[in-house]
Prior knowledge:
single chain
Amino acid sequence: MGVSIAGLFAAGIIPGLLICLLCMAVIAGLGRRLNLPKSKERFSLLRIFWAFKSSFLAILMPGIILGGILFGIVTPTEAAAIAVFYALFISVVVYRALTFADIVEMLIRTARITGIVFLIIASASILSWWMTFMQIPQKIAAFFLFLSSNPKVIIALILALLLAVGMFMDINAALIILAPVLGPLTATIGMNPVHAGIMIVLALNISLMTPPVGACLFVMSSVTGERIERISMSLIPFLIVEIGILFLVAFWDDLTLLVPRLLM
Length: 264
């Protein structure tokens, strides 16, 4: 879609904080309702200060990633590589929390989880090739414009499409196929490209947690050994929260574009 990566990062800050805060509220509510165990230590500003001081080097990592991207020093891919090496250096040299055996075990577990995810991606790629060959995304865009010229109606239809497609297709394949089609469609109804881009990314990221092809569900099942069905049921309150924020982001452009405008 030709949208600024730094602009998308900036546009995602407020939606990301909203998701974080509301999911924390859901966790607190579920904790009380299910009577989950909680810390017996009382709140203390001194404890927060010492925790912040001891974790300062770790807290720097998000700043290095976002700062490098927003100021154009590195690309997102380069920032990811720098973050991995930084985390490895801090864990091994500074905190001395990892040994060589730990690293080997992490690599083995990562290989297993990645294998599961790539099997899902491979299966989803077959579906994405068929959709591209049949020109289904282009037909859907034309159908939306045929149904209505009202921007709010078209945005709602786009969100429904993204959430539905995300249930059966890998996010990378969905972005590659749908973004070139939805980009011009959102431009037709007057949406800012950054606003449209963050809406599409947020909608498809929600689909990472929805069955039957939710990549995060398979990763969590592989890590915890829990059944996907139970994980999916437990995620329902969080999905409701994130879908609510998605619609807020989609229909309130000032919320999304506030930070990018401040950063010019």
